[in-house]
Amino acid sequence: MLLLASVFVLYVVAGKAGLALAFVNASASAVWPPTGIAIAALLVLGTRLWPAIFLGAFVVNVTTAGSFASSLAIAGGNTLEAIAAATLVTRFANGAHAFERPQDVLKFTFLAAILSTAISATVGVTALVLTGNAAVTDYAPIWLTWCLGDASGALIVAPPLVLWATTPPRRQALPRVVELLALAAAVVAIAIVTFAGVGPLSQQQYPISFLPFPVLVWAAFRFGPREAATMIAILSTVAIVGTLNRTGPFGSLAPNDALLLLQSFLAVAALTTLSLAAAVFDRDRAHELVRATEERLRVAEERKVVAREEFLSVAAHELKTPMTTLQISVQALLRLLDRDGAVETGVLRRSLTAVRENTDKLARLVTELLETVRAQAGRLELEIADAEIATLVAAAVERAQARTHRSALTLSVPASELRAKVDTLRIEQVLDNVLDNAIKFSTDGGDIEVVLSDTRGGLRIAIRDHGVGIPPERRDRIFERFYQAHRETERSGLGLGLYVAREIVQLHGGRIWAEFPDDGGTRIVIDLPSLSADSGRGAPVGSGAGP
Prior knowledge:
Helix content is about 60%, strand content about 5%. It has about 550 residues and is α+β, with helices and mostly antiparallel strands. About 40% of the residues are buried.
């Protein structure tokens, strides 16, 4: 309600001032700031404020001249003009940001200052003629005055109001503030010299209306659309006062003709200056975008370098550990072979076991690296075949049990057979990765439960350990490449196992996610489409998050 009242009051005050300069007809003025106020209000605050425009236009006209009917029609035309301008500019010229690109300034000029103002002028003058408040022979001069007054209001009054309402305040350095004050002083001084009768140039009415252009260019280049539009408004105010006092380039003409020519000049100056300011603003914004993009690329590159260095450090550590064990085991074997006498069977067995285990670990690390590279390049390929999943899971559990003596693995499978079209080697790789994690982080032993079950349209493999679990703040990242959830306490591999597992499961049209039971540990759940779900077509690729 306060907004409606404020717009209404501002419109009435500006309208009364404008009609005080009506020379060709009591309801038509070559200076009509209410048009700019109305367009700015509807652009910034929304077209819902149209009642304030309608009521303000009606009050201005009914208390100045004309009949109730003509005032009602004029108010309707003025309101329709503002609504049309705001709607068209919003639709085609970037709305309240129409002064940030040259092409939008031109669109604003055509839509708001030419097309929409013709609506108000046509409706208003027609209403004056039909109600007997204007002669038919005066239709053309009244229409021209009306249309040009509205157009100048749209180009001179609306831009600074919109820009000051929508442009966020900026802290300015002292030198820039001083420059802005100097610019304003220069605009006022040149306007007075050109239009206000101070000095012989304006007193003698020399055709020097071009003098303000250098300072307007200064405003456009140095300060942008908002300040440039403000300087045009200042220039316009001084020029109108001077012209009415019959000084300046247009002072020798009849008042209405002088104002028409002045408003034409100011409209051209406004269009030129706003277009130039918008071009500079658009250029600076593009440069800023380029700088911001370059900065983001630089930061991203630095992060990639850090990640690469961290990865190399982790990889070197993980590869060095089994290599060191292999070297020690081989040295032990060589010593045994160099001895005279029988080889100690227990020592030989332990050494060969260490060689086998660490060779397997090296193979897994290299495989994870290769699979990660393939996944990043989109080159992970599947060799799909019909497989009985319970057999795959049982084999994976048997392999995992052979790798641990601290944890007991239990397997639960349904009585019915579960078959799916899968790449058996890839699914075995997924199961081995998940089971290795379960074993690795069950530091105190404990059961590891593997459950295979039938779901609607698919099958589910759930692997639950009772180990150290994962801190809550890190749970969302465990499927990320190179992410290690327990990096502070121990090396947890390259951080690639779950990442590769997720990529493989998603290629099968399935999902994989983690659950964290209240009594501790972690449950990794894998859903795959079964043959009963027509898995040959595949299912939607999961995101790595649970349901």
